Amino acid sequence: MAVAAAAVNVFQTITDxxxxxxxxxxxxxxxxxxxxxxxxxxxxxTVTETISFGYRREGxxxxxxxxxxxxxxxxxxxxxxxxxxxxxxxxxxxGSNATSLKYLSSILETSNL
Length: 113
Known about the structure:
Low-confidence stretches: none
Shape: elongated
Distance between the termini: 17 Å
Largest sheet: 5 strands, antiparallel
CATH architecture: Sandwich
Mean pLDDT: 94
Oligomer: single chain
């Protein structure tokens, strides 16, 4: 029986509007490890807003950034380097405004097979 070949490397770009409730913005898929290359938030509003960004494994949350202030019309990088996210691990976001905080990330998913 032939096995379909899975892509070894898959690039993903994720965009989302940050909300007032904690939301999962990325889950590493089965058989892949995600390498977060870029994670940033832009505040398109007129006042300073805050963002919290976290890593979740098996229901346990680890904060990466907590209540980071982002001035109006500015952008903040949420990672100082790359982050490895294993199968099933998640990235979470929550902000102080439901419309003016915009999330963007670039992810390289690498096959574990």
